[in-house]
Automatic annotation (TrEMBL), chain A:
Lineage: Bacteria, Bacillati, Actinomycetota, Actinomycetes, Micrococcales
Database matches in NCBIfam families: PRK07573.1, sdhA_Bsu
Residue stretches of biased makeup (Pro residues): 1-11
Cross-referenced Pfam families: FAD_binding_2, Succ_DH_flav_C
Region annotated Disordered, chain positions: 1-29
Protein name, per record: Succinate dehydrogenase flavoprotein subunit
Automatic annotation (TrEMBL), chain C:
4Fe-4S ferredoxin-type domain sequence ranges: 150-179
Protein name in UniProt: succinate dehydrogenase
Keyword annotations: 2Fe-2S, 3Fe-4S, 4Fe-4S, Iron, Iron-sulfur, Metal-binding, Oxidoreductase, Tricarboxylic acid cycle
Cofactors named for this entry: [4Fe-4S] cluster; [3Fe-4S] cluster; [2Fe-2S] cluster
Biological source species: Cellulomonas phragmiteti
InterPro entries membership: 2Fe-2S_ferredoxin-like_sf, 4Fe4S_Fe-S-bd, 4Fe4S_Fe_S_CS, Beta-grasp_dom_sf, Helical_ferredxn, SDH/FRD_Iron-Sulfur, Succ_DH/fum_Rdtase_Fe-S, Succ_DH/fum_Rdtase_N
Keyword Ribonucleoprotein: no
Keyword flag Phosphoprotein: no
Superkingdom, natural source: Bacteria
The protein's Enzyme Commission number: 1.3.5.1
UniProt record similarity statement: Belongs to the succinate dehydrogenase/fumarate reductase iron-sulfur protein family.
Record PROSITE patterns: 4FE4S_FER_1 (PS00198), 4FE4S_FER_2 (PS51379)
Entries under Gene3D superfamilies matching the protein: 3.10.20.30, Alpha-helical ferredoxin
């Protein structure tokens, strides 16, 4: 890749410095007691005083709607913002498979401890143990609550809640509502939010995009939002701000995320001082649909539950052009079953994605673009009968047929890894507070729980636990000492400064005299990231990515064209702002990948693998979180600063993941 | 290209952006009007079925037919009510239902138009939609027909009635009326219209009165269609019989 | 594949709108309807013309954001399929396709193909929720709920809130939407408690913005979630039940 005369590849030292460590403020007790201990020590706000506090919640997904509704129920004044026209549209709606809960009712030997073990081990020991305990402990109440507010969980014929098992675990702890678990939970949560709107505790602001955080006196005290319909930019102040704005997977352009999911709120908060944890930890979902054409807008996600009954294979021979039905059994390579006989097709996502990528890159890919592997239900149909298989997956089969025109029971599905979930996110301490006091995170925008790889059905859970059962404790704990402090004045210098920054940036985008729309830059950024920071990474590739991203960013600001005006609905302007943020964030993503000199979970570095091609962690050097600080855009030394949070493990001792 | 910004002083609560607002329920409530439509419509449906039974007595000959007419006019429910009273109770009930049905229909149709807005729904293809869309038209046709029908065969008012109209001679009046091809044609048109109106109306009754169960809905759909067809075929037999000379 | 698109352009709610005609020459059969619009917009931006505003998000038929009227039919030619899953293969080379926003008085146009569907949320806000605060719920396994009951509730809870039912209705009625919510919450024992109040409040709010149902049945034809037509009967059923039994039950 390096032509003569060009500088040598970037090294970590070229792009970052190491700063002071950060403290996660985890209670100094055994991890299983941490949450009890912390709740005992939170300050309280008396019921009559609660309405004196205003809390801003940005985002109305499972975490945002839950936090806003729960804080409203407690009596706080909540200002809730969403970019959507309705709270129910948030991308939590799209999760299909289910929600884990350590209720451990069955006799399959599940328990909270086992849940923690699966979560921590699944995350390859790069998340906090105490966080995972809270996740498991509160999971019981999450199911009870979501059931009570209307989520019609699947039931056994006897009337008990039904469960199924999911990738990466050997017990059955995943609760579900057909293939629409996310939708049912999301709608229930959004309806609970609307109940508070009706009650007057929550003011809901739809079609408003958060473009900046107001930080005054070292505390987050407001946000700047743009009304997407009128274009009006205004600031809203409060005593605390909760960001629940989702993950940044769309940075890869073609991802399983919704089109409007974006990283702008998180990135703007980062720019105001919130550290960004482990941005390189992005999960590639093994069962996404492969790209089939240039204009395909996303890689549609097929639920991982398909792997319960489907068998994944590629031809034994590379570049085999035969139709799948013409390839005899002995010429098929069921590579997951071959490499991981214990878990087989149910290996965790990162393992399955990497194995698929490895086969595709080695020339065994199938489909017209040779960019997929087969997921075959022929055996399941033989074993269970067609009717049973159809009843389990009918909506997924229907979705697949809609998208591809193929009947998955006649020809095997074609699947490929697609960018999916961001384990990385804004760094927060045990109380979900970022490095900016008063700025909290909930759900995927944060970094918690999942380490370097998220287990299936843990994302809905983490969003619910954050929103319904963590932030309602933690936010009041922060607010209590502020009793008597007025809301920040609307004409405070910090407010005016943030407003001016947003206004200037918007104007700059609109006035730029370029030739290319923002979508084109986004597509090119996605190509760079899939190539340089995809399923498998190399130091050279990541360094190359940094160089290309810098060049693309420079080209963006030179040549982007944003048609339309600022004082109206302008989707091009929205996209341009988001792509501009991706172009900054992508560099940090590559820097983190280049810096983290090990393989762990979804972050697989080709230079750190076992002879069998498994991820090789370096616990001595890297058993820690990288919480990043970005240089100011005009700084002379444009290097990122890494702050470390060391991780220790008591309940689940460090061990090598082994799914063979 | 300017980006409007606002630093207006913060009120205690940040007002949500103005969007179309909530407001009071229209009066009388739409669901009440729907119930009125359904109940009065059901009364009419029962009426046309009983009317058909009476009509078919034409095939039993003049004595049976005229005797039945006389019984309806004079003797039904007597001596519970004095002779001749029933028919007026009956007529006033039907008239009340008619007024309520037409009033509710007009109010609902107005609300429907307002709720739809200026852009009409395009591209309706199904028979069900044709029926639903034509309910007002079929209703108006039926209203005209009812007026004509009463003038022709009840009051004997010319020119709706023939010159030979004799009060009490129901059979003869019927035959002489249907011997006019134009009247027979209008009658056939009206019966066809009645079928469209009745079949869809009854299906709407099933829905408006809250039949949600699968079996109940299936039965309701079948009954709606069957009653419509029965009334269509049964009533068409009569002008056909008169014009072909079977009834004379 | 060449398609001629008549697209509704309207700068904002206050201004009048009109159709503009565009030609896409390189459409392919596997494109979705919305990818066709993406393609058109890319071309428009290249020509220095403002792209067509339209809504979409998940593009896999679950968020309910998308919804355009295709040749007078909400979402597009294929029944029970959202716009994001309508494919160009439904059209023939050389076809002329008319694209409009979802039409209803309760859905004012925001811009081009984007409409404001907040009237649907107001129906939910009026009563489509359950008065249980966080942390106060009983054990979800304590009440036995039959498999069939849960499945029935889910059939109606599947509504994605896209508003196509309203746009499909010549009367601008939201009966399918409201009935789906009422049925979902009336079917499950744990949410049945507020049944009467919910019916009174939701129907009142629905009637404020939306028209009466005339049993066209068009709503169920376009509904991407396949909500059964019986949902419209639930509106009358639940409302009459509340009238006969009082608001509480």
């Amino acid at each position: 890749m390096t032509a003569p005369g060009t500088p040598p590849p970037l090294t970590p030292d070229d792009v970052r410095t190491v700063g002071t460590p950060v403290d996660g403020r985890v209670p100094d007790v055994a991890p299983e007691s941490a949450w009890d201990d912390r709740r005992l020590h939170y300050d309280l706000v008396a019921p009559a005083n609660r309405r004196k506090f205003t809390v801003i919640v940005v985002g109305t997904g499972l975490a945002g709607a839950g936090a806003a509704a729960a804080l409203g129920e407690l009596g706080y004044q909540v200002e809730c913002f969403t970019i959507h026209d309705a709270p129910r549209r948030a991308h939590s709606v799209a999760a299909q498979g289910g929600i884990n809960a350590a209720r451990a009712r069955k006799v399959d030997n599940d328990s909270v401890h086992r849940f923690v073990k699966d979560t921590v081990k699944g995350g390859d020991f790069r998340g906090r143990e105490a966080d995972a305990y809270r996740l498991g402990q509160e999971s019981v109440r999450v199911i009870d609550h979501m059931n009570a507010i209307g989520a019609p969980f699947a039931r056994e014929y006897g009337g008990a809640l039904a469960t199924r098992s999911f990738g990466g675990v050997q017990v059955s702890r995943t609760y579900y509502t057909r293939g629409q678990t996310g939708q049912q939970l999301q709608v229930a949560g959004a309806n609970a939010l609307l109940r508070q709107v009706a009650a007057g505790t929550v003011t809901l602001h739809t079609r408003q995009e958060m473009l900046d955080v107001v930080v005054a006196d070292g505390r987050a005290q407001g946000v700047v939002v743009r009304d997407l319909v009128t274009g009006e930019v205004r600031a809203v102040t409060a005593h605390a701000v909760v960001l629940a704005t989702g993950g940044y997977g769309n940075i890869y352009c073609k991802s399983t995320l919704a089109r409007n999911s974006n990283a702008t709120a998180a990135w703007r908060a980062h720019r105001r001082g919130a550290h960004f944890a482990n941005p390189a930890f992005v999960q590639f979902h093994p069962t996404a649909l492969p790209l089939m054409s240039q204009w395909q807008s996303k890689t549609i996600l097929m639920s991982e539950s398909l792997r319960n009954d489907g068998r994944i294979w590629v031809p034994v021979r590379a570049d085999d052009d035969r139709a799948p039905g013409d390839i005899p059994e002995e010429e098929r390579d069921y590579y997951l079953e071959r490499r991981y006989p214990t878990f087989g097709n149910l290996t965790p996502r990162d393992v399955a994605s990497r194995a698929a990528r490895e086969r595709i890159d080695a020339g065994y890919g199938v489909g017209p673009l040779k960019n997929a592997v087969y997921l075959d239900f022929a055996d399941a149909v033989q074993r269970l009968g067609r009717a049973t298989v159809v009843s389990r997956y009918s909506n997924l089969f229907h979705m697949y047929e809609q998208a591809t025109g193929d009947d998955p029971l006649r020809t095997p599905m074609r699947i490929a890894p697609g960018a999916h979930f961001a384990m990385g996110g804004l760094w927060s301490d045990y109380d979900l507070m970022t490095s900016v006091p008063g700025l909290f995170v909930g759900g995927e925008v944060g970094w918690g729980y999942h380490g370097a790889n998220r287990l299936g059905a843990n994302s809905l859970l983490s969003a619910c636990v954050d929103g319904w059962f963590t932030l309602p404790y933690a936010v009041p704990g922060y607010l209590a000492p502020l009793l008597g402090t007025p809301r920040l004045a609307a004409d405070d210098a910090a407010v005016l400064d943030a407003l001016e920054a947003v206004r200037a940036r918007t104007e700059r985008l609109l006035k730029n005299d370029g030739t290319q729309g923002p979508d084109r830059f986004h597509r090119r950024l996605g190509e760079i990231l899939y190539r340089c920071a995809g399923v498998t990474r190399t130091p050279e590739g990541l360094a190359q990515g940094i160089v290309e991203i810098r060049a693309l960013r420079e080209e963006f600001w030179r040549d982007v064209r944003v048609l339309g005006e600022g004082a109206a609905l302008n989707q091009e302007l929205e996209r341009a702002g988001r792509v501009a943020d991706y172009l900054e964030m992508a560099e940090l993503l590559c820097v983190d990948g280049l810096d983290r000199d090990e393989s762990c979970g979804a972050h697989f570095r080709a230079d750190h693998q076992t002879p069998d091609g498994e991820a090789l962690r370096d616990d001595a050097a890297w058993c820690r979180v990288s919480a990043w600080e970005s240089p100011a855009p005009d700084a002379a030394d444009g290097r990122f600063v890494r702050h470390d949070e060391p991780l220790t493990f008591q309940a689940v001792p460090l061990q090598t993941r082994n799914y063979a | 290209m300017a980006v409007p910004t606002s630093t207006r002083p913060e009120p205690d609560r940040v007002p949500a952006v103005e969007r179309p607002s909530a407001g009071p329920q229209p009066q009388p409530a739409t669901w009440v009007l729907k119930v009125v439509m359904a109940v009065t419509g059901t009364v009419f449906a029962l009426f046309v079925v009983v009317h058909l039974v009476g009509n078919l007595k034409v095939f039993l000959g003049p004595e049976e037919f005229d005797g039945y007419a006389h019984w309806l006019q004079r003797d039904l429910l007597a001596p519970l009510v004095p002779h001749g009273w029933f028919i007026w109770i009956f007529r006033s009930t039907l008239l009340t239902c008619l007024v309520a049905h037409v009033w509710a229909a007009v109010v609902l149709r107005h609300r429907a138009r307002v709720a739809r807005g200026p852009h009409r729904r395009q591209g309706l293809r199904s028979f069900r939609s044709f029926q639903a869309r034509s309910m007002l038209v079929t209703g108006v046709v039926l209203l005209f027909f009812v007026v004509f029908h009463v003038l022709d065969l009840t009051t004997g008012t010319r020119p709706a009635a023939t010159g030979e109209f004799v009060a009490g001679q129901a059979y003869a009046n019927l035959v002489s009326s249907f011997q006019r091809p134009a009247v027979a044609a209008f009658y056939v048109l009206a019966i066809g219209t009645l079928f469209l109106h009745l079949a869809h109306g009854l299906w709407s009754v099933v829905n408006d009165l809250g039949a949600t169960g699968r079996r109940l809905r299936a039965i309701g759909a079948a009954v709606a269609g069957a009653v419509g067809l029965l009334v269509l075929v049964g009533n068409l037999l009569i002008p056909v019989a008169v014009l072909t000379g079977v009834v004379a | 594949m060449k398609l001629t698109l008549d697209v509704w352009r309207q700068p904002d709610a206050a201004s009048p709108g009109a159709f503009e005609t565009y030609v896409v020459t390189d459409a392919t059969a596997e494109m979705t309807l919305l990818e066709l619009l993406d393609r058109l917009n890319d071309q428009l931006v290249e020509d220095g013309r403002e792209p067509v505003a339209f809504e979409s998000d998940c593009r896999e038929g679950i968020c309910g954001c998308c919804g355009v009227d295709v040749d007078g039919r909400p979402h597009g030619p294929q029944a029970n399929t959202p716009s994001c899953e309508q494919h160009v293969r439904s059209f023939a080379d050389g076809d002329r396709v008319v694209l409009e926003p979802l039409r209803a008085a309760a859905f004012p146009v925001v811009k081009d193909l984007v409409v404001d569907r907040s009237a649907l949320d107001r129906v939910v806000q009026a009563g489509g929720h359950v008065a249980v605060d966080a942390g106060t719920a009983p054990d979800a396994d304590a009440a036995r709920i039959g498999h069939e009951t849960a499945e029935t509730a889910l059939d109606f809870a599947a509504c994605i809130g896209c508003g196509a039912c309203v746009a499909a209705c010549p009367n601008g009625s939201a009966s399918l939407f409201t009935g789906a919510k009422l049925t979902h919450l009336a079917t499950l024992p744990q949410t049945r408690t507020e049944r009467g109040r919910r019916a009174v409040d939701m129907v009142a709010q629905m009637e404020h913005d939306f028209g009466p149902c005339s049993t066209y049945g068009e709503c169920a034809v376009v509904c991407p979630a396949g909500i059964p037509l019986s949902a419209i009967a639930a509106v009358g059923k639940e409302r009459m039940r509340a009238f006969l039994r009082g608001r509480t039950g």
